């Protein structure tokens, strides 16, 4: 049974910097140590974008060195807070696809994992590039990735949710071409689950008949009121990552609030 660990929205910053008083480096380090301690047998640790907060080279360098501490192998894609060129300059071991996008296919015995690059850039023209987009080239790549699954169920990992989640501000900067994305998903009929980040909340459900899961950040989280238009508002809540286990009968999705996770047990 394939086991995948999922981190999203790392928002790494240069040394000494903070986000709402929180240290992204320390929080991610604690998450990596937690994974190494309890999930060293994971088949992959998948990182779903917003690797840095400002897409600066020092932050990418700090993140690269931090991820080298992982015991399981890593797979990475990018989000709206990232910059493809700067990312690739620092993460020189990451191989982009034939068109330069940070996406890949990973085949396991019981599933195919597809990582999509949903960054709407270049040009890095904010606020528009905070929304996600899959251009025709990436849609064609996705089409081939689904077509070549060879009977395996497909798990899709992407930064931007491909549909509304109920949060007004974040929904305005979700994936911009939802219909084109779901046209391919429904055409092939082999996508078992969609995983995303971007919203900094734990959300689960289904859309157009396809189950989805969205995970929280290791750093700062989205305030819970749905009608908040300001996407920069953040709260300090426990850091988290996701655990995905493929079973013979389907799929299990867990959320690990590792910052407050206790391992000492007693009889309730």
From TrEMBL:
The keyword Metal-binding applies. Gene3D superfamilies: 3.60.21.10. Transmembrane segments: none annotated. Coiled coil: none annotated. Residues 3-201 form the Calcineurin-like phosphoesterase domain. InterPro entries: Calcineurin-like_PHP (IPR004843), CNP_phosphodiesterase-III (IPR050884), GpdQ/CpdA-like (IPR026575), Metallo-depent_PP-like (IPR029052). Keywords: Hydrolase, Iron, Metal-binding. The keyword Membrane does not apply. CDD domains: MPP_GpdQ. It comes from the Bacteria. Belongs to the cyclic nucleotide phosphodiesterase class-III family. This is Phosphodiesterase. It comes from Shinella oryzae.
């Amino acid at each position: 049974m394939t086991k995948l660990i999922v981190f999203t929205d790392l928002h790494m910053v240069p040394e000494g910097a903070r986000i709402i008083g929180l240290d992204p480096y320390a929080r991610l380090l604690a998450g990596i140590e937690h994974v190494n301690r309890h999930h060293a047998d994971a088949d992959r640790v998948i990182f779903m974008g917003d690797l840095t907060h400002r897409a600066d080279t020092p932050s990418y360098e700090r993140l690269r060195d931090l991820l080298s501490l992982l015991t399981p192998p890593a797979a990475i894609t990018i989000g709206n807070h990232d910059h493809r060129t700067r990312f690739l300059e620092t993460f020189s071991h990451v191989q982009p696809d034939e068109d330069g996008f940070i996406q890949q296919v990973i085949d396991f015995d019981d599933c195919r994992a597809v990582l999509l690059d949903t960054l709407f850039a270049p040009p890095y023209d904010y606020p528009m590039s905070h929304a996600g987009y899959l251009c025709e080239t990436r849609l064609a790549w996705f089409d081939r990735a689904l077509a070549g699954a060879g009977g395996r169920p497909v798990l899709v990992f992407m930064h931007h949710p491909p549909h509304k989640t109920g949060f007004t501000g974040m929904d305005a900067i979700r994936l911009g071409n939802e219909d084109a994305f779901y046209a391919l998903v429904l055409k092939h009929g082999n996508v078992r689950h969609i995983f995303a980040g971007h919203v900094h909340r734990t959300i689960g459900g289904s859309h157009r008949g396809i189950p989805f899961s969205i995970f929280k950040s290791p750093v700062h989280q989205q305030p819970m009121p749905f009608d908040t238009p300001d996407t920069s508002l953040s709260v300090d809540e426990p850091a988290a990552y996701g655990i995905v286990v493929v079973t013979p009968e389907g799929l299990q999705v867990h959320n690990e609030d590792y910052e407050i996770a206790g391992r000492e047990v007693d009889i309730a």
